[in-house]
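Researcher: I'm preparing a figure for a lab meeting and need a structural model of a single chain. I don't have an experimental structure, so a prediction will have to do for now. The sequence is pasted below. Please return the structure as tokens so I can convert it later.
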Amino acid sequence: MKKIVVLTGAGVSAESGINTFRDSDGLWEGHDVMEVATPQGFGDNPELVLNFYNERRRQLLKVAPNMAHKALARLEDHFDVSIITQNVDDLHERAGSSKVIHLHGELLKARCSHNPNHIIDWKTDIQLGDLSENGKQLRPHIVWFGEEVPLLGKAANITQSAHILIVIGTSMQVYPAASLIHYVTRDTPIYFIDPKPNISRTDFKQLTIIQVSAVTGVPQLVSDLISEKH
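Model: Understood. Here is the structure written out token by token.
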């Protein structure tokens, strides 16, 4: 079965009502990124950081997958599909996608602040005083700036196996996630869906740019790929 690898960013979830964290002025929901998305920020003001992600988590539980998420799930009926996402929401899974790698962590999980391998499901607020089994404060299971991206190697191996690569709703500015597109061979067809695509045609031999939103572009591309197969 043909292997399709999908790289997704904030643009695929924006139309479900998930705010993209980073605004044009570089602030995340009114906060400096160093305050809410670094280990140092958590050390300086853990309550502020916990509240920031508690708000994101509450918001996530009120929204639903959109047509882009659902179309990608439908693609699994016809292809071997792996989704590698920079998003920390669970909308791909709720739409029905079965193989999803979250490069930057997951909002609906918490982890021990001293043992990154102790990860638990968590759908409510994390409060100061909520402790892991070894008695240490719980923190959001989010990969913060300055931390390793533990699933990057696995994601790179999967990307290398792609017969088709689809990139959706990402600025291709956040590294190391943005480097994944370079793991496919030069002859691999790449479909890039974004209303403001930030990619050069000269770098890739088989690049198709679809300059529309995810909810418009993804269902159409999925239909086209399924039709071509049959």
